[in-house]
Design a protein that fits this description.
Blueprint (H helix, E strand, L loop, with lengths): L8 H6 L2 H22 L10 H6 L3 H5 L6 H26 L5
Length: 99
């Protein structure tokens, strides 16, 4: 990556405020989906769709992995991390490479 090669990789990928806000929203949606699925609600089975759509397209591709709940969490986490890195990159480019 260009710009600040002395900055750690995680800070370059996820050190942007927009990327961190997106990761927080994805985490909140995932917690909400688990809480909604735990209840005795007929519509709770669709609660898991929201975090998957928020972290698409990577999460949709990763859902092809077998494994149930761990695969769901892995798919949403992978999708959120990839999308957050893209958000941070776009934010840096739109600001002209400045911090």
């Amino acid at each position: 990556m260009t710009g600040h090669p002395d900055r750690p990789l995680l800070r370059r990928l996820y050190g942007d405020a927009f990327a961190l806000a997106y990761l927080g929203i994805c985490a909140a949606l995932t917690v909400w989906a688990f809480a909604a699925s735990a209840g005795e609600n007929e519509d709770a089975s669709l609660a898991g769709v929201i975090p998957v759509l928020a972290t698409a397209p990577v999460s949709i591709a990763a859902l092809a992995l077998p494994g149930g709940l761990p695969a769901f969490v892995l798919a949403v986490a992978a999708g959120a991390l990839v999308n957050a890195a893209l958000i941070a990159w776009c934010s840096r480019r739109l600001r002209g490479g400045k911090r």
